[in-house]
Amino acid sequence: MTPHLGCIADDFTGATDLANTLTRSGMRTIQMIGVPTSSPPNPVDAVVIALKSRTVAPELAVRESLAALAYLQFLGCQQFYFKYCSTFDSTDRGNIGPVTDAMMTALDVPFTIACPAFPQNKRTIYKGYLFAGDVLLNESGMQNHPLTPMRDANLVRVLQLQTSRTVGLISIEVVRNGVEAFLQEMARLQKEKVDIAIVDALSSDDLITIGAACSGLKLLTAGSGVAQGVAVDLRKRNQMIQGSDNSPITIIEGARAVLSGSCSTATQAQVAAMIAAGAPTLAIDPLRLAQAEPVVQETLQWAAEQLNLGPILIYATADRDAVRSVQSTLGVDEASKLVEDAFGKIALGLVELGVRQMIVAGGETSGAVTQSLQIEGMYIGPQIAPGVPWTTSIAQTPLNLALKSGNFGSPDFFLTAWDALSHH
Ligand code: ADP
Prior knowledge:
The protein has 16 helices and 18 strands. The protein is an alpha/beta fold. The strands form two sheets. A 15-stranded mixed beta sheet has the order 9-10-5-11-4-1-3-2-16-17-18-15-12-14-13, sandwiched between helices. Strand 6 and strand 7 (129-132) form a beta hairpin. Adenosine-5'-diphosphate binds next to helix 12, helix 13 and helix 14.
């Protein structure tokens, strides 16, 4: 069965967020890292392609997005979804506008919506103005973002700066009047030569209305919130493989390991909790890596002896002062690179030693590990903590892999995450 929904996400964690949302809404979902070269081996309802196109030059973002779109069309997807951040992260040049434009042209669609709302996470849109929590986007701290400062909360204005197409608004009154009213408004806007409509949404029910009203649109552009509505609609129309809430992934039995290269506050507590629980743990010293000492070999030797004792933890996680001290000796980039390279090699060695269930903490660290293990994509499984699912990787040696970005998860995450696999 060909996948119904083809999604393109403009960053890695955003892709995971969307894939997690779709899976929890009952869709079998696969996340691919970059534009793949082959078809997913198992049948899925949705394919999410993770790009890194949020802050690159618009021309490059367009090129990569169109390549991803061509792949999704090749797979036979019927509906397409361009996923961006719920805070509409973009610059005056893009890339939300240019990528939307290019996808509309490629798919030959006259009209689409733009809706980053995610009410569950307190991202709501009223009269086109995006709120983050109780304040307007441009008062939320996002106005100071280093790469994508958001200085205007009016999304009609923000998007209009990025596109030569005409941007309009579908207001909350229309959304609350239901699907019929929404459809009429879309028809009216198109007559008025509006090409892209920002859509108001204040609650999860609004997302359901939007999902149902937009089922006839070939292209949607949105945050991950609207995906809930799309999934509910697809289930109603029986467009899913099985339409159940569980998300079967293959459990791969084998040894368990945690690799932690994140120094975020939440991760520090998680490392401390695993040490306190008496698990086998080993710290990586970046200064020894810098002196080309055989840290990776030593670590793997240690791991070989400890793996049968239960989940092991290998960490470079350190507090702010320790990290600063290392960075002032080695330089920020060099320190990061050394630690990331080491984790890449350690991950490979651990797989050779029989590790098949692995948690990686840290966004950059996860990037280094997935690259080193040559992971092409992941089937999304049960959620461990909000935004962090177990996955089954697509690679020569598949693993159950959980990629945890720095500040996610409770202190016992490394200790209890395994339960989600056992209870599966
Ligand atoms: P997070 O998701 O918490 O930001 P990342 O993995 O994205 O975690 O980033 C952490 C960065 O810090 C990585 O580049 C990692 O290699 C680096 N790092 C980890 N431990 C240390 C350390 N002890 N000293 C210096 N840098 C470190």
